[in-house]
Structures are given as C-alpha cells and as structure tokens.
Amino acid sequence: MVPLSSELIRDVRSVLWVLLAAFTFILLIGCANVGNLLLVRAVSREKEMAIRATLGARRWVLIRQMLAEGMLLALAGGALGLLLAYGSLRALVALLPQSIYIPRLDSVALDTRMLVFRGGAFSCDCHGSVQRASELAAGAAESE
Hints:
With 144 residues, the protein is mostly helical. 81% of the residues lie in helices and 0% in strands. The protein has five helices and no strands. It is elongated and about 75 Å long.
C-alpha cells in the first residue's frame, strides 16, 4: 500500500524542493535590495530632514511624513507584487511542458484567505508603527 502523499507527489518531490529553494533565494535577494534602497534613500534625505527640523518642523510631523511614504511604498509594492504573482502563476502553468507531471496542477491558484490574512497583518503592522512613532515623538518632545 502506497501512502497518499507519495502517490500525489510521485517523481516531482525534488523538482518542488528546487523550485521552493529558488523562489526563497529570489525573495531574499529582493528583500535585501529593497532594504538597501530604503537605507540609501534615508541617508540621502538626512540633510533635508535636518533643514526642515531647523526651520521649525516638529519631530512628529517628520515621523508622520516618513511613515506615510513608507506605507504608500509598501502598498504600491504589495499591489504590484500581487499582479506579478497572478500573471506569473498563469504564465508558468500555461508554459509548463506536458512531459513534467505535477499533480493537481489545474487547482494551483493564489490563496485569497492568505491574502486577506496578510492584509490584516499589514494593517496591524501599520497601526503598531504609528503607535511606536507617536511614543518616540512624545518622548522626544518631553526631552526638549
């Protein structure tokens, strides 16, 4: 008697592990690139923030602006990533040769439950960031 998981996966177990490793590696490279871009952007805007603070802008206003820009960037990146994921998934399924057997390939799709969960987690992250920023601004105002 053969276990059901072995029957469903058959010969493609190694192919699926290679795909998982490749996608994980690409995701890590993308995250490192975005992190570096944000770091360079923050360093390049350091002088601008110093000038705005000298001209009388409060820390909370500067923090709120940076948070708004970061959230807008995250939302735009998430929307673009979702569109790319949907298009790439359809293209990969369509271009996959018939000689490679992948069980249940016709049921491969983006999981909307996970997308809704991630959207909720993102809103919680945003709320937490705003709370931390307001606490930092309040602490900075008390120390002045």
